[in-house]
Amino acid sequence: MKNNIQLYKHGKVMATGAVVELPEAVAKASKGIDHLSYFKQTISSDEIALTYRFDEKDMVVGFGETVKGLNKRGSELVSFCADEPEHLPNKKSLYGAHNFFIILGKEITGFFIDFPGTIHYDIGFVDKDVLNIKIDGLDVDIYQFTGDSLKSVTHEFLSIIGASYVPPKWGFGYQQCRWSYETADDIRRIGKEMREANIPCDTIYLDIDYMERFKDFTTCDDKFPDFENFVSEMKDQGFRLIPIIDAGVKIEEGYDVYEEGIKENHFCVDEDGNPFVAAVWPGLVHFPDFFKEETRQWFGDKYKVLTDVGIEGFWNDMNEPAIFYTPKRLKAFYDHVEKSKEKPLDIYSFFDLKGEAESLSSSPEDYRSFYHEVEGDLVRHDKVHNLYGYFMTQSAAQGLEAIDADKRFLLFSRASYVGMHRYGGIWMGDNDSWWEHIELSMKLLPAINMCGFMYTGPDTGGFQSDASSELLIRWMQFSIFAPLLRNHAALSSRNQEPFAFEEATTETLKNIIELRYGLIPYLYSSYMKAVGERSVYAANLIMAYDDERTREIEDQLLIGESLMIAPIYKQNRTGRLVYLPEDMLLWNANGAVVDSLKVMPAGDHFVPITLAEVPLFIRPDSGIILGGVAETVEQMDATQLTFLGYMKTGIEESYYDDDGVTKAYEQNQSLETTIRVVQSENGLRALVDFDQDSELMNVKIIVMDETGQRYEGIVTREASSICLEKVSQYDN
Ligand code: MIG
User: Fold this and answer.
1) Which residue in 283, 268, 287 sits closest to 327, CA to CA?
2) Which residues line ligand 1 (CB under 6 A)?
């Protein structure tokens, strides 16, 4: 492919590590930012402003993790990793800083702004026809991508930032989490209930409750006695435990991580060169200076404390970094309160006080009051803020790599910046059990994928607030298509495990989760192909169809190359409107067993969908590969699979698989099965090209043709080319 990438530089941006595969020729041809003619530029003493005049029909997509929809035109965003638990429509920042966006108009042009500080985007907000980008600094690299489609421009970007993180295959299983599984017995009970209800589940999470007073790399002996045995006890039942790691290190004499950090100068410092103090869950903490190679190595090695007792995955939290307060500003606040007591409080002074109390957390002033060491120099935190969570997760990934270079660990983070996608995934943070947040998670999945982060998913069921059974069911019906499928809830919210509701709900959730396991062969194959081809796993329809109509559709998604989904995300619905850009085969799935197929013509439809059903739309001349259901991903039967296809003129699908646990895939050691369905004189013929090394012995083929005629047959290694038989829909 021809290179349509141009790099423009101003000053010298610190090495963020976002771009790692820039073609030599592009690097050589880099120019000063003054050559970037797409924008009008204003460079002042401390900031760079870029302005672009929109064409009437221009739309703007990208920016990864935001509360906005597909087309960001008319919005304001601020690129600044924020501990933002309220995902309300007016919020300008979430946890990630993803400065990649595409302007689609007469031309299609993408930009990646590699800059670790704050960037303000006014995307036709102040003036509807003007894009105004304000970069809070003078050292920046701007990459421009041109191409003839959204797909090709996205591909160019994904090609230079390095391949996405790949989780172990069991990371595609159902994962159960909640903040307030206080003791080992709580976890045991969760495991027991899941198994008794026969609901597949691969992991159970340990939130901050497992630690000894919130100290990283400790476990609380009272609540989790004999942790090592407990980990293996749960593993024997098929559950991997996934502990949380927070960014702040508790200040406590005798705590080894604290003491080593002090002794070896691993912590961020304040103006006076003393370790910077902030308060988070452990109370007063220091923040490791992940900008230093030695510190990354030191902290990363600590994960071994937990891998040594059998842990195989982690989630890194609070790494924006979140700050509840700093002692310094708390004191100023106290002084203010004292002073206020001197005279009667008027209403404005009351609101001042209230506002000051609220602004104690994650305050910009605090972010301006500590420093990192970057290449020997001290750099003020706010200038490089967006890299903190990234470097923490890089530290973890490198630590895990040192522990076992060939093993895939599960790893994801809350804060992120482009480049971090090579080290781990991200979860979508603290949403609420609101219907609006199902919709938001549907908007986030493709947007986050576009920025390189393939492994992602929402807190299914909602983190804060209370979930109703219907909300959880509908949310689950979407989340089973996200790579990271995790049910997570906040402390003191209503319990929302699949077994926490009426029996009928548990049954419905079981079927939905079973469908997820059935889909894993297809989902995993699609994920691995996206990573390998530098494309996306989940996409808006516009990515494939790009016409006036699909430009406005953001509640239907493409998952991989063959599947379109149209989840219900509103309460009390018995169906929904679905737009089909082309004719498709609808499988209204109720569980993992293929039934209820229907060919639907292109156009607009109202599709009836009961609470138990998950509609899957299969694109013409393609299909999906399905497995059997099991308690865990590793127990799934790899010897037989089912292929469900929609036949018009001919199908050829390749299905990717690998061992799921090692990094052999990096050496292209994959298993590839090709499935073809062709027209022959006596009807339809199915041919399967089995991979020599795979365990797969037979594939059950189910296809439907345009007329609604269903065909079936079983292809084996001995009979790898067979004639399919006509069956009537209701025969079986
Ligand atoms: O201040 O560890 O986003 O998933 O359950 C809250 C407790 C800290 C925020 C995370 C959430 C997690 C919670 N954490």
Assistant:
1) 283
2) 179, 207-208, 244, 317-318, 414, 429-430, 488
Q: Is residue 244 within a helix (H) or strand (E), and if so which, with residue range?
A: strand 240-246
Please tell me what DSSP assigns to residue 606. Answer: E
Residue with tokens 């090579």: 422
Closest ligand 1 atom to residue 208 Cα is: 2
Give residue 20's pLDDT.
Answer: 98
Q: Which residue type sits at 476?
A: M
Ligand 1 mean position to 601 CA, how many Å? 45
The crossing angle, in degrees rounded to 10, of helices 293-302 and 388-403 is: 60
Provide the edge-to-edge strand list for the sheet that holds 249-250: 249-250, 283-286, 278-280
Closest to 636 (Cα-Cα) out of 669, 619, 660 = 660
User: What are the CA-CA distances from residue 199 to residues 497, 512, 630 (Å)?
Assistant: 11, 10, 9
Beta bridge partners of 622: 646
Residue 668 pLDDT grade (very low, low, confident, very high; cuts 50, 70, 90) = confident
Q: What is the DSSP string of 662-680?
A: BSGGGGT--EEEEEEEEEE
Reading the block at residue 141, the tokens are: 């690299």
Q: What is the CA radius of gyration of the chain?
A: 26
Going along the chain from its start, the domains and CATH numbers come out as 5-161 (2.60.40.1760)
| Neighbouring residues of 327: CB distance < 8 A, sequence distance ≥ 6 | 277, 279, 284
Q: Which residue among 81, 242, 317 is best mutated to probe the pocket of ligand 1, counting the most ligand atoms within 8 A of its Cβ?
A: 317
From 507, 519, 483, 674, select the one nearest 594 (Cα to Cα).
519
Q: How far does the centroid of ligand 1 lie from the alpha carbon of residue 54, in Å?
A: 40
Nearest in space to 626 (alpha carbons), one of 719, 538, 725, 700: 700
Which pLDDT score, from 0 to 100, does residue 1 have?
44
Say what the pLDDT of residue 3 is: 62
For residue 637, give both structure tokens: 């039967």
Report the nearest atom of ligand 1 relative to the CA of 281: 1
For ligand 1, mutation pick of 84, 86, 204, 430 (most atoms within 8 Å of CB): 430
User: Roughly how many angstroms between the first and final C-alpha of the chain, as a whole number?
Assistant: 49
CB environment 601-640: b (16+ within 10 A), e (fewer) = eeeebebebebbbbbbbbbbbbbbbbbbbbbbbbebebee
Q: How far is the CA of 83 from the centre of ligand 1 (A)?
A: 10
Q: Tell me how far apart the alpha carbons of residues 352 and 356 are, in angstroms, rounded to a whole number.
A: 6
DSSP calls for 113-137: EE-SS-EEEEESSSSTTEEEEEESS
Within 115-213, strands assigned E span: 119-123, 130-135, 140-147, 174-176, 203-206
User: Which residue out of 179, 205, 314, 316 has the highest number of ligand 1 atoms within 8 Å of its CB and is therefore the one to mutate?
Assistant: 179
Exposure string (b/e) for 417-430, b if CB count within 10 Å is 16 or more? Answer: bbbbbbbbbbbbbb
- Dump pLDDT digits (tens) for 493-537: 999 999 999 999 999 999 999 999 999 999 999 999 999 999 999
Nearest residue to 440 via CA among 347, 351, 569: 569
Q: What gap in Å lies between CA 457 and CA 660, rounded to an integer?
A: 20
* Cα–ligand 1 centroid distance for 27 (angstroms): 41
- Which two tokens mark 559? 């998952």
CA dihedral 548, 149, 602, 592 (to 10 degrees): -130
- Ligand 1 atom at minimal distance to the Cα of residue 324: 1
**The residue type at 220:** C
- pLDDT band for 56, please (50, 70, 90 cuts): very high
Angle at 582 between CA 581 and CA 585, to 5 degrees: 120
According to DSSP, residue 295 is labeled H
